[in-house]
Every structure is written in C-alpha cells, then in structure tokens.
Amino acid sequence: MPFSPRIGRAKRGQAGEYDSPHHPILRWAGSKRKILPTLAEYWKPTYNRYVEPFAGSAALFFSLQPNLALLGDVNSDLIGAYAVIRERPDDVHKAVSKLERSAENYYAVRKSDPKKLSEFRRAIRFVYLNRYCFNGIYRTNTSGHFNVPYAHTKPGVIPPIEQFRQCATLLHRAKLRCADFGSVLKSVRRGDFVYLDPPYIVESRRIFRQYDERVFCQGDLVRLKEHLIRIEDKGAAFVLSYADSTEARKLFSNWDTRRVQVRRNVAGFVSARRLASEIIVTNVEL
User: Fold this and answer.
1) What is the mean pLDDT of the chain?
2) Which residues, in sequence order, are CB contacts of 46 under 8 Å at separation 6+?
3) What phi, psi does 250 have (nearest 5°)?
4) Strand, coil or helix: what is 73?
5) What is the pLDDT of residues 117-168, one digit of tens each?
6) In what order do the strands lie in the sheet with 237-243?
7) Are 49 and 189 in contact (CB under 8 A)?
8) Secondary element (H or E) of residue 262
9) What is the pTM of this model?
10) For the chain, how many structural domains are there in total?
11) Does residue 14 lie in a domain region?
12) How many CA atoms lie within 13 A of 123 on its CB side?
C-alpha cells in the first residue's frame, strides 16, 4: 500500500466476542444482529434463494446460511471486499492483522486512494477501516472519500482467522452484485426470500442514512414499495426492516407489520444510545 503502514501485533478481542461460528466479519451501523432470532422466524429452508439488496454486514445471511444467495449493495468497496475475502480469506486476515491499530496509522490508511490500489489491497484497506472506525459507520463525503474518524474509545478488533474462513465458505454460496437495490430486486424470482434493510428516512427525527455520496431519499422509499409489490406478484416472500414511524406505517400498510425494539449504537455518547422502535413489514404468514 502507498501509505507505508506501521506493522504491529493486532490486539485480540475479549473472550466471547466471536462466540457465534457465523458472525459477520464486518461492523455495520444499523446492523440487525440483535433481532436475528426474530427475523429468522420468517425464513424457511424450502425457499429457492436468499436475496439481500442492502447487504451491509449481511448478518442475517451469515446466520441463516442459505444454500443459494444473491447479495447486492451500491457500495463497490463493500462488494469488492467480500469478493476478495471469498477467494483469499487467509491472505486478507494476515495482511489486515499486520497493520498497527493506532490513530496515526488509521488516518494514513484512510488517506490512501482506493482507486489506485489493487483489488486485494483495496479489500485490506476496507476491512481495516471498518474494524477501527467510529461505530462501524460507513460514510463518504460528496467526493466519495471515506471520512469516518478513528474510534479512540472501544475500537473494534480483527476477528480470528477461523471467522474469515467461515465467512468465505458461506460467500461461495452467494452471487455478489454491486448495484442499486432496484437492479438487484429485478432479479427476484418465484420462490425467493428477500430481506431488505434500507437506510431510514423519518421526517420527525434525524436518522443516519448516508452511506456514500448519495443520500437515500423519499423517492427511493416510494420506489422500494413498488418493488415490494412486484416481488409479491412474482410469488416471492419478503421481509423489510424499517424505522417505526407514521409515514412508514402508511406507506407499507398493504402488508403485515410487527413492532420490535432495537438498541441503536450510532450515537457518540453512551447516554444517547437507547432502544428504538422498528417495524418488520412482510408478506410472509407465520
């Protein structure tokens, strides 16, 4: 890498942090890890394929371990990292573990231009920044440059190599696609199971929703509803996670909704981290 990274011994996590054998290796703001048992209730092994157009950390995918999947996301760095990890999990783990965990090295890595890196080194950069950035947030400025600060308190750790290998094995079951969610959803077929966890738009309060230079807007939300109608018409099942709000309940009133409580950790101070209400919208009958 052009930033001449410092080499040091990577610090390990506390015992029990990676107890789950299929824990995702990436941190992601808004991850649904806490409600995976609830989401899993809607899944049946008889579905033909698992489809997720807003992949992020793909926590539900790694938890369910479907035999066939389509994982999509508009984030090219994310999809590229998954592609490299799928083929070279040991190499990725070794390279990331050699990078020193420090603010100085973090900002040196962040400053590097991913467009000038090979696919492998770009993946190393992505995983390193993801593990040590503030709260696992992925955010870029209007120029497309990653600008999340270093996590000076309670930074992440690099998962053990076994975790990389397990994720790679499961990723071999998935087709990866870097594309807008609409393009991914056009591929949905009869018998598929679709899980959607888009950025949230709520008029009454501020919610983090910008994961790259583009902002998920109201028009995208309306477009999402149109795709849900098409998914149902095709004979496929879907489950959507969304912020509990008046506008969301009105927009998705065609389908069953279920309220759940999720602990949100995007806030910068512990006192601001609290339970938030979300809804699960679905055409699946439990």
Assistant:
1) 86
2) none
3) -70, -45
4) strand
5) 999 999 999 999 999 999 889 988 888 899 999 998 776 789 999 999 999 9
6) 174-178, 69-73, 49-52, 192-196, 237-243, 275-282, 256-263
7) yes
8) strand 256-263
9) 0.86
10) 1
11) no
12) 22
Tell which residue, 286, 175, 284, 174, has the closest CA to residue 231.
284
Residue showing tokens 């070794």:
94
Alpha-carbon distance of 179 to 183, in angstroms, equals 6
Q: Do residues 197 and 54 make contact, with C-beta atoms less than 8 angstroms apart? A: yes
Q: Both tokens of residue 227?
A: 């795709």
Rounded CA gap, 113 and 116, in Å?
A: 6
102 is a domain residue:
yes
Quote the percentage of the chain above a pLDDT of 70: 82
DSSP 94-152: HHHHHB--SHHHHHHHHHS-GGGS-HHHHHHHHHHHHHHBGGG---B-TTS-B-PPB--
11 within domain boundaries: no
Q: Find the CATH number of the domain harbouring 62.
A: 3.40.50.150
Q: CB of 34 within 8 A of CB of 142?
A: no
Residue 116, Cβ neighbours under 10 Å: how many? 10
* pLDDT at site 73: 96
Q: Radius of gyration (Cα) for the chain, nearest Å?
A: 19
Residues 30, 90: Cα–Cα separation, whole Å: 28
